[in-house]
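pasting for ref
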Amino acid sequence: MLRERFVSHRIAWSRAFVVAAFPLVLFGSPPKVLAGWVAELLELLGFALLVAATLWRIWCHLFIAGWKDGELSIEGPYSVVRNPLYVGNFLGVVGFGLAVELPYLALAFALAFLAFYPAVVDAEEKRLEGRFGGRYRAYRDRVPRWIPDWPLYREPGTIAVSPRHVRRSILDAMWFLWAFALWEFIEELHKNNLLPRLF
């Protein structure tokens, strides 16, 4: 089924989606659904979500940088939610849709995420249970899957990280903001008639 294929190849699917959508971004003329202060407010909310998603993902990576598959991460953001990186992705894709003033795009991203990512998480949780056994089951029973439970928060005094992995993680987390900057650049090209709108 489609969901199982997505689980196995989600990065390839995500890249294919970006490649397929790029001509629409470059040459399309998406309809503006909202105008005035509502559009401005949603754009501001979207940008805030983009920044939050970027910082959240960087914070998550600090707790797994260099040993993601070697140890069970249960502190920091992982102490309040089992899938903090995916929570960050969700905030980022919804934020992007709002920041570019296309709320239907935010809704489409949210629905696609809700349709496909639970299957990804199911597969990952089975893998983690197989690897860590009862320790993971106890963690799974205590910490929610999607909605952070902040009273559970705990962090160590220090953490050991790999600088190379942290650097890569920061670059990985920045793609939300880069996508927004690219969108704004293309919008300016359209406004100044330097890039045609074909449809």
